[in-house]
């Protein structure tokens, strides 16, 4: 009896170990998904992403295409615009910092965000060394495009109909931004 039970117990032990390791895996991918839903960037697979390194990047789009999600790539590298009212930071007023979803460069502070009816997250002021400007005359309009200073990714456009104190309205795509809440920044 006991000689029969021993291998059976061992077998059961093996099966339970197997089940444990199977249970662990979905938990792991769950937490990854959670952090993904908080932020646009997939920092894990992006060797260029850094919130402290300000070195100018010169990375080809063919390389970015392998790293970025299709949504982030379309907006940031091909200057597409997300549909108004759909972005996750449009109606969002938590305190914290906004970074470039492509490279981690600091772009905006929540203090400069204001409620705009245009359908995209809007700011009256950008980080001084965070952005650059480019003339954009596509779609028969004269506009000023806003790009990340570090990685040249498209962020949105800037207009001169914003509120005081600057009168400027940075009209941004949510997908180009990564928000980090104040308490999270302090903890890092
Ligand atoms: Zn960037």
From TrEMBL:
One Gene Ontology term of the molecular function aspect: peptide-methionine (R)-S-oxide reductase activity
Pfam assignment, any one: SelR
Chain intervals with Polar residues compositional bias: 38-49
NCBIfam families membership: peptide-methionine (R)-S-oxide reductase MsrB
Secretion signal span: 1-21
Reaction(s) the record says it catalyses: L-methionyl-[protein] + [thioredoxin]-disulfide + H2O = L-methionyl-(R)-S-oxide-[protein] + [thioredoxin]-dithiol
Keywords: Oxidoreductase, Signal
EC number: 1.8.4.12
InterPro entries: Met_Sox_Rdtase_MsrB, Met_Sox_Rdtase_MsrB_dom, Mss4-like_sf
Region ranges (Disordered): 25-52
Name assigned to this protein: peptide-methionine (R)-S-oxide reductase
Keyword Signal: yes
Record bears the keyword Oxidoreductase: yes
Record organism: Kaistella gelatinilytica
First-level EC class: oxidoreductase
Domain annotation MsrB: ranges: 61-182
Highest taxon listed in the record's lineage: Bacteria
Gene that this polypeptide is encoded by: msrB
